[in-house]
């Protein structure tokens, strides 16, 4: 007769993938709400009358408050737990997404984007915390890659659904309908999700000892910011997140301005680009998880996967010289896919370097740095395009950021030694 422990283990094994599915759908919604502004920018630019610089500053308002949201929610998640904090974040960002329909000016859109950013800042601290609790170390990069691929699926669905919806019902209705999806997810989340018990969490750590940590409770920002492991993640996000946000917010405008495509025709290229990123997100996590399973250590497995991703980004430096639209789409798709593979491993590194009680807080600190980098880059983008109208320099910056980030990270955590928070 099966023991209660064996039955419990089997049920837990199945349930962790249910958790992964919930995180995946939340991330789909997160990115659909985030991307709708970029997709409707050609229509809104005519209705509202904003300039390139004003559009850049609307993007900045989201980025700035997304930074604040990630920092604050990192602490909230470690304090309140994943279940409650994730639900709060979803309510805030879904309400903000729907309220875009009431905006009628540059200032109005900037305010709604700020509120959206504040709520969306809770997504990744909560999701990575849940993954750390429910998955053993050898599976975390793969699980992160799977739920993070929701960003790509959201980016695929968004151009396929939102422009036709806006054309048929108007852009205000599009904001309301897409925003309301998050409320539906929240009902499922509160009904289905339960936190991992202490035995499950301990089993994951005890099976693969890495953290020597005798402390309790969530450590403060002052403790974490003094650790070189925190700075490795922080700088990795600061140097590479702005590139991904460039893809999200400016690719529709690039297709419109540099390739002459209108709202009715930009959907298919964007769908193809973000379909490729789904492969990259899961593939990047699969690479390091596979290398761990064949006996590689964490340091070698994670950094090898990230180096492969960094090299795959390099061709985008030359995309402005490519005349054929679909060749350019493939190059951008490869770079975007590589970013998501990079991101799956970068997020997972936090659980390699820190105990569970600090994971969400460190994710929040790094997320804030990534969003702050995006604020700076958005201003650069707006000024460059306003003055020159050329995108090539922006693609070159995007191509080089990953190798620079990996080099700095290797200098800071050459051996991937876990942080000592109780020392």
UniProtKB/TrEMBL annotation:
<feature type="transmembrane region" description="Helical">
    <location>
        <begin position="359"/>
        <end position="377"/>
    </location>
</feature>
<feature type="transmembrane region" description="Helical">
    <location>
        <begin position="389"/>
        <end position="413"/>
    </location>
</feature>
<dbReference type="Pfam" id="PF07690">
    <property type="entry name" value="MFS_1"/>
</dbReference>
<feature type="transmembrane region" description="Helical">
    <location>
        <begin position="304"/>
        <end position="320"/>
    </location>
</feature>
<keyword id="KW-0472">Membrane</keyword>
<feature type="transmembrane region" description="Helical">
    <location>
        <begin position="231"/>
        <end position="251"/>
    </location>
</feature>
<feature type="transmembrane region" description="Helical">
    <location>
        <begin position="168"/>
        <end position="192"/>
    </location>
</feature>
<feature type="transmembrane region" description="Helical">
    <location>
        <begin position="326"/>
        <end position="347"/>
    </location>
</feature>
<dbReference type="InterPro" id="IPR036259">
    <property type="entry name" value="MFS_trans_sf"/>
</dbReference>
<feature type="transmembrane region" description="Helical">
    <location>
        <begin position="140"/>
        <end position="162"/>
    </location>
</feature>
<keyword id="KW-0812">Transmembrane</keyword>
<feature type="domain" description="Major facilitator superfamily (MFS) profile">
    <location>
        <begin position="19"/>
        <end position="417"/>
    </location>
</feature>
<dbReference type="InterPro" id="IPR011701">
    <property type="entry name" value="MFS"/>
</dbReference>
<dbReference type="GO" id="GO:0015134">
    <property type="term" value="F:hexuronate transmembrane transporter activity"/>
</dbReference>
<dbReference type="GO" id="GO:0016020">
    <property type="term" value="C:membrane"/>
</dbReference>
<feature type="transmembrane region" description="Helical">
    <location>
        <begin position="84"/>
        <end position="103"/>
    </location>
</feature>
<dbReference type="InterPro" id="IPR050382">
    <property type="entry name" value="MFS_Na/Anion_cotransporter"/>
</dbReference>
<feature type="transmembrane region" description="Helical">
    <location>
        <begin position="58"/>
        <end position="77"/>
    </location>
</feature>
<dbReference type="InterPro" id="IPR020846">
    <property type="entry name" value="MFS_dom"/>
</dbReference>
<keyword id="KW-1133">Transmembrane helix</keyword>
<protein>
    <recommendedName>
        <fullName>Major facilitator superfamily (MFS) profile domain-containing protein</fullName>
    </recommendedName>
</protein>
<feature type="transmembrane region" description="Helical">
    <location>
        <begin position="266"/>
        <end position="292"/>
    </location>
</feature>
């Amino acid at each position: 007769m099966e023991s209660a422990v064996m039955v419990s283990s089997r049920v837990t094994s199945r349930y962790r993938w249910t958790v992964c599915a919930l995180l995946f759908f939340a991330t789909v919604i997160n990115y659909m709400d985030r991307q709708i502004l970029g997709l409707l920018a050609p229509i809104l630019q005519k209705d509202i009358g904003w300039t390139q610089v004003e559009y850049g500053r609307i993007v900045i308002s989201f980025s700035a408050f997304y930074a604040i949201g990630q920092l604050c929610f990192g602490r909230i998640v470690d304090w309140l737990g994943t279940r409650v904090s994730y639900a709060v974040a979803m309510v805030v960002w879904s309400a903000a997404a729907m309220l875009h329909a009431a905006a009628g000016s540059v200032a109005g859109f900037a305010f709604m984007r700020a509120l959206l950013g504040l709520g969306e800042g809770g997504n990744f601290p909560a999701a990575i915390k849940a993954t750390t609790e429910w998955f053993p170390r050898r599976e975390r990069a793969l699980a992160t890659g799977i739920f993070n691929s929701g960003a790509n699926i959201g980016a695929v669905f968004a151009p396929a659904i939102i422009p036709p919806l806006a054309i048929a019902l108007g852009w205000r209705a599009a904001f309301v309908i897409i925003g309301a999806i998050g409320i539906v997810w929240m009902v499922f989340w509160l009904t289905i999700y339960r936190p991992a018990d202490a035995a499950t969490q301990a089993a994951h750590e005890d099976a693969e000892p890495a953290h020597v940590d005798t402390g309790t409770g969530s450590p403060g920002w002052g403790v974490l910011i003094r650790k070189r492991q925190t700075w490795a993640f922080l700088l990795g996000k600061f140097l590479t997140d702005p590139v991904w946000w460039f893809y999200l917010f400016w690719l529709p405008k690039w297709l419109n301005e540099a390739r002459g495509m209108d709202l009715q025709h930009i959907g298919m290229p964007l769908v193809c680009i973000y379909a490729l990123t789904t492969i990259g997100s899961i593939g990047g996590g699969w690479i390091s998880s596979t290398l761990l399973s064949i006996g590689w250590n964490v340091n070698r497995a994670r950094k090898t996967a990230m180096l492969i991703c960094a090299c795959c980004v390099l061709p985008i430096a030359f995309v402005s010289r490519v005349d054929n639209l679909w060749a350019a789409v493939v190059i951008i798709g490869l770079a975007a896919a590589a970013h998501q593979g990079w991101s799956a491993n970068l997020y997972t590194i936090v659980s390699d370097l820190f105990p569970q009680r600090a994971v969400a807080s460190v994710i929040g600190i790094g997320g804030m740095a990534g969003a702050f980098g995006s604020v700076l880059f958005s201003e650069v983008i707006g000024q460059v395009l306003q003055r020159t109208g050329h995108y090539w320099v922006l693609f070159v910056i995007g191509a080089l950021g990953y190798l620079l980030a990996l080099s700095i990270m290797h200098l800071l955590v050459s051996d991937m030694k876990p942080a000592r928070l109780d020392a």
